[in-house]
User: Fold this.
Amino acid sequence: MDKNTVILLCVSVYMLTCIAIGLWAMRRTHSTHDFFMAGRNLGFIVTGVAIFSSIMSGFGFVGGPGLMYTMGLSSIWILIGTPAGIAMAFYLLAKKSRMVAEIRQSMSIPDLAFARYNSPAVRLLVAISILFGVVAYLGVQIKAMAYVLKEIFVNNEIWGHDSMLFCVVISSAVLVFYCVTGGIIASVYTDLFQGIVMVAIAVTIFFSAFGELDGGITACIESVFNDDSESAGPWGAFGMFGCLSWFFLFGVGVVGQPHVISKMMMSKKVEDARHMLPFTLTGYTLTALLWISIGLVMRALVLNGEHPELAKADDAAAEFLYSFASPLLAGLTFAGLFAAIMSTADGFLNIGAAAIVHDIPHAIKGKSINRELLWARIATVGLAVLAGWFALATPDLVGILGVYGWGVFASAMAPAVGIGMNWKRATRKAAIISIILSMAINFIAMLIQLSTGAKLGYGVAPGAIALGVSLVSFVGISLLSKPDKIDSDIEQIMDL
Assistant:
């Protein structure tokens, strides 16, 4: 059986597995609490693996190699900052968010923010910022899936292979079925499956990738250095300020990622946090090997004349698998890539749907809408369509779009939620203003980039600027504002 057939078979089996998981999870989804929070009944292994899987996702497995191929070692600063941020997020929020979820029956991050600040305005702004970021980050997942699917269609001469629109539609259709039927339960169990598979595959590919070059990793770095010495330097082609902005954004920014915080709220026991952290850190570190190896090796192979120049940097992972990996390894990796993308996209659809049908109605009317579960599934379809359009409308690399989506979440929620849950002096006025400022900076930066192509100087990420402004305004306004009264149960949790 040739490689193309093996890959197509593995991906087809995975797609069918997704449909089966969705149908299985639908039988366990009886309420919005199940749909959004998995009944808060997940073990620490499932939760720990699900967290690192959702962080890595299509951003890491498609966008990561693309960034490494284009910019050299620049994106290594994302991989350095993120594990530190994961540890910080666990320290600041894991136990406290889980306890608030149990005491207040919270189903979302805006619920958590409302419990802390007693403010419908804060709840509404957090929900809006989540929607703002979800469309961008979900677009990343759909775009990543479409790129991989397009490569598979091209090599198997399947009708529509030359159309990005066709690939986006197919990707979104499977995603919507999987998400609408299974909710977050389908997502976390797929996370568990794909997390274990991707750790094994990432380690295998790391060694096999560098084995494609005589001299291994040393020869790879030398080839990149001889072509562009900056790319092989500590700052890569992006420059010091750009890399440090990524380090800051991805280090501090983990504290504001809703797909991380929401999964912390789903664990079965409060004390599970200390067991979850090692699984999350180990899994992320090992899967990052794929990000590093494929991007660098493909760049070196192109420079050495052993592979044609890539049409798009985001094709790096798919091109390596088709050209250099064994049929079974390529097939399993493609299936794992889809698993990473699908489960993360499901998580974002779930978070976005909760903002639409649960958080915004509660912030405006103070109560839930009728038939909340039905409307949650309808909102899931609508978000997928909007994100699919965003994926087609934006020309940027998957990795760059991922940085943008991450920045929206980080700047809006790291101060208000991450710091706010640990600092009693934080005020609702500070939370409101910091969220508004962060959304304005990110939105304006995106509009300017889409309309003119202009970017900030020195490669600085707009999300890093937004996060810095948000942090300074949050702390400053809190110190200048009159302290707010905090509910006694929340205050006791903050004292932990």
User: Anything to note?
Assistant: The two ends are 59 Å apart (CA to CA). The mean pLDDT is 84. Residues 164-210 form the longest helix (47 residues). The chain has one domain: 3-392.
